[in-house]
Design brief:
- This protein folds into 2 domains: 56 residues, no CATH class; 65 residues, SH3 type barrels (Roll), CATH 2.30.30.
- Helix content is 41%, strand content 25%.
- The protein has 123 residues and is an alpha+beta fold.
- The protein contains 3 helices and 6 strands; from the N terminus they run ααββββββα.
Length: 123
């Protein structure tokens, strides 16, 4: 019982550390120096950067010490990382896993309670 509760709590803690990006895209000039960003190109490729910098009307995606020039004509969307994002039950696979874990914990709890009361009745 203690092991399953520990595993459930560990899963919830791990899900809380997932990064989430705002669904509303922003312009490159608004994303510059505003923190972590995800850039999705028209080809479908997505890249995550620590921040986007601007120099002489040119934009660069910066990740660590690497700087990549961004072609604004090929960009489909730019999304900023949410500051206080946590995984909600509606967030795809992670939400599904969370729901399964919580249901499993609930079933184990009910089973333990039934076993306990049956034990008490036998005394």
């Amino acid at each position: 019982m203690k092991k399953s509760v520990s595993i459930a709590l560990l899963g919830i803690i791990l899900l809380q550390s997932c990064a989430g990006y705002d669904k509303r895209p922003v312009h490159l000039y608004k994303a510059a120096y505003r923190g972590k960003a995800r850039v999705v190109y028209k080809s479908g490729e997505g890249f995550k950067y620590d921040f986007i910098s601007s120099e002489d009307n040119n934009y660069f995606g910066v990740k660590g010490k690497n700087k990549t020039q961004l072609d604004s004509l090929q960009i489909w969307s730019v999304n900023l990382k949410k500051k206080n994002k946590s995984i909600a039950p509606t967030d795809g696979v992670a939400g599904g896993v969370l729901i399964v874990v919580l249901i499993g914990a609930g079933v184990l709890f009910v089973w333990a309670m039934v076993a306990f009361f049956n034990f008490v009745d036998d005394l």
